[in-house]
Amino acid sequence: MKLIGITGAIGSGKSTVALLLKEKSAIVIDADKVAREVVEPKKPAWKQIVDHFGEGILLPDGEINRRELGKRVFGHPEKLARLNEIIHPHAIAEIDRRVEQLESEFKNGQAVVIDVPLLFEAGMHTRCDLTVAVIANSEIRRERLLERGMSRSEIERRMESQEGKDILEQQADVVIENNGTLAELKEKVNELWKRIQNH
């Protein structure tokens, strides 16, 4: 089994790259989705978050109001760091569990992609056979995020909280620049897929 870590700042297109690899038969583990699962009501991470940030971040059904929590942490490095300290160990343990399960199922060259916004910061790159950073100019990323319905202030807070593309470029084995069209991105993913197959 080949474990590929894909990372990139918000709006860079990393999840699109992961989706394109899935179309080529890769199995994708979405770290954001895993992080949402580990903070479901009454789970240990949920309890730690509520204890730290208060019940004001909860929706009536007990779910964490992600938008409200985001407002409280993005733009506040110490609060964001604390939130990550709570979530990361739980999310990483769950991702590790899924990877181990897949390793027992696939003894051949099956590609497994983990789509992780904070791949290097969380130390998950050490588990990967290949790391890929998807980068895009900040203006293009802003446009994409506006199209998703984010407010300008929310976009700025989130963009400030993530690693710069220069740091990602230095750390990753492969860098995919995603400033162009989807067709151009598909070509780059085709090249990446060839590299994965030969890795």
UniProtKB/TrEMBL annotation:
Main localization of the protein described in the UniProt heading: cytoplasm
Localization (cell): Cytoplasm
Record organism: Candidatus Aquicultor secundus
Highest taxon, organism lineage: Bacteria
Function: Catalyzes the phosphorylation of the 3'-hydroxyl group of dephosphocoenzyme A to form coenzyme A.
Lineage: Bacteria, Bacillati, Actinomycetota, Candidatus Aquicultoria, Candidatus Aquicultorales
Catalytic activity: 3'-dephospho-CoA + ATP = ADP + CoA + H(+)
Protein name (record): Dephospho-CoA kinase
Gene Ontology cellular component terms for the protein in this record: cytoplasm
